[in-house]
């Protein structure tokens, strides 16, 4: 469909917003769990209030940010490489980049862009640092406030995954919202990440398939390069999720599986089928398991860092496609159950010894945000009318997003080459 007009976002100013008062300086330790996912996660929030215009949106966002950064002072620093050769933070206190902008349209145009996954339009709502060559040249948080013709505004955020996992990001944003409304922090951050130091000497006690290198014998990389990448969302309502769980336990009805296990097993099997991997193609599943409550002792409440560990499983595509759903779901269930304190500490020690990041050839990486409450973030204009991430951090990623106020439905968002997406859509009709 041709654009009836050009979507224009005019950036009026960009400034550094430092903490409002003096904060600690110097090196800040990031754990080995903070090293794995060196990406920027982008999210959008659209606000429109019946009683409040967008005239002060920029100033409110900026002032509350400078106040909350006193509590979250590492966010005002810059990523760097430590003497040990790992990513760390130099707490310079120079601040977060905040950009003021305005768009030549109202929310309808942006809603349309979201429904059609038009990334080239949505990208104008999040500031990309010009000429940044790598993650170290991008501040840990970048914010853009775009006022719209309809009287609402969009807050577009780029946040470094090295600084936050989903839970920590949510807690930071909640604190920022509380500050904007003049409230004290209900959950002050726990900043000391040295509690997750590797053991000395390191002990690698488990196999770590998540780091396996896989050869692309099916030439799937070529398919991605040659065909248009099509993005789609698939809504799984509670009754569909129950149906999948029933199907996954047909062979053994006493075998209880979780929604995550059933959905992950189903999507992995379906994606292998859609991409037409050769039967002997080794394929990998990666997902982030939240270790906060699984560590012994559990991580402190408000732990501001990555409490997730990437865990992996490798099998052949033929093994997944030829067997019933119960097989792939069973593999996922066993993998989930293997994530213990010992496994997570072994994974951190593995990184300490090998300094390698998970390879993504023939891999599916599942990231679940289905328990995160992006739709509740209120800076004083009420809860966002629209919210959530846009785009995917990589072509191997499938994102689970919450849907509906009851948080019981899951929106599955992914991108596939056009021919594979056609097959995948058929497989989603369960």
TrEMBL record:
Gene3D superfamilies: Chloramphenicol acetyltransferase-like domain (3.30.559.10). Keywords: Acyltransferase, Transferase. GO terms for molecular function: acyltransferase activity, transferring groups other than amino-acyl groups. InterPro entries: CAT-like_dom_sf (IPR023213), Plant_Fungal_Acyltransferase (IPR050317). PANTHER family: HXXXD-TYPE ACYL-TRANSFERASE FAMILY PROTEIN, TRICHOTHECENE 3-O-ACETYLTRANSFERASE. Belongs to the plant acyltransferase family. This is Omega-hydroxypalmitate O-feruloyl transferase. It comes from Capsella rubella.
């Amino acid at each position: 469909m041709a654009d009836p007009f050009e979507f224009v976002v005019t950036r009026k100013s960009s400034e550094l917003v430092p903490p409002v008062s003096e904060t600690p300086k110097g090196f800040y330790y990031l754990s080995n769990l903070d090293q794995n996912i060196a990406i920027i996660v982008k999210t959008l929030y659209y606000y429109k209030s019946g009683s409040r215009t967008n005239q002060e949106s920029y100033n409110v966002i900026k002032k509350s940010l400078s106040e909350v950064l006193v509590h979250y002072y590492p966010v005002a620093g810059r990523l760097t490489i430590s003497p040990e050769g790992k990513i760390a933070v130099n707490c310079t206190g120079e601040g977060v980049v905040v950009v003021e902008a305005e768009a030549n349209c109202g929310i309808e145009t942006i809603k349309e862009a979201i429904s059609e996954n038009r990334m080239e339009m949505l990208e104008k709502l999040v500031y990309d640092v010009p000429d940044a060559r790598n993650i170290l040249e991008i501040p840990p948080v970048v914010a853009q406030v775009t006022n719209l013709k309809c009287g609402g505004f969009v807050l577009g955020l780029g946040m470094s995954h090295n600084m936050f996992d989903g839970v920590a990001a949510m807690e930071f944003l909640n604190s920022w919202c509380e500050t904007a409304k003049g409230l004290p922090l209900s959950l002050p951050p726990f900043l000391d990440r040295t509690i997750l130091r590797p053991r000395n000497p390191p002990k690698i006690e488990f196999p770590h398939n998540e780091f396996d290198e896989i050869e692309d014998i099916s030439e799937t990389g070529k398919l991605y390069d040659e065909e248009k990448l099509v993005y789609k969302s698939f809504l799984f309502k509670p009754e569909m999720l129950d149906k999948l769980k029933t199907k996954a336990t047909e062979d053994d009805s006493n075998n209880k599986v979780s929604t995550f296990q059933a959905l992950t097993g189903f999507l992995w099997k379906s994606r292998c089928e859609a991409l037409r991997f050769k039967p002997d193609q080794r394929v990998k599943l990666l997902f982030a398991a939240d270790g906060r409550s699984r560590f012994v002792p559990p991580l402190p409440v408000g732990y501001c860092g990555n409490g997730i560990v990437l865990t992996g499983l490798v099998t052949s595509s033929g093994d997944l496609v030829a067997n019933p759903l119960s097989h792939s779901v069973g593999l996922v269930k066993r993998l989930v159950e293997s994530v213990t304190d010992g496994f997570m500490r072994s994974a951190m020690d593995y990184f300490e010894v090998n300094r390698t990041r998970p390879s993504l050839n023939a891999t599916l990486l599942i990231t679940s945000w289905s328990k995160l409450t992006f739709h509740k973030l209120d800076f004083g204009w009420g809860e966002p009318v629209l919210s959530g991430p846009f785009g995917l951090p990589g072509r191997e990623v499938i994102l689970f997003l919450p849907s509906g106020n009851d948080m019981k439905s899951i929106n599955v968002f992914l991108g596939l080459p056009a021919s594979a997406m056609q097959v995948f859509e058929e497989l989603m009709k369960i």
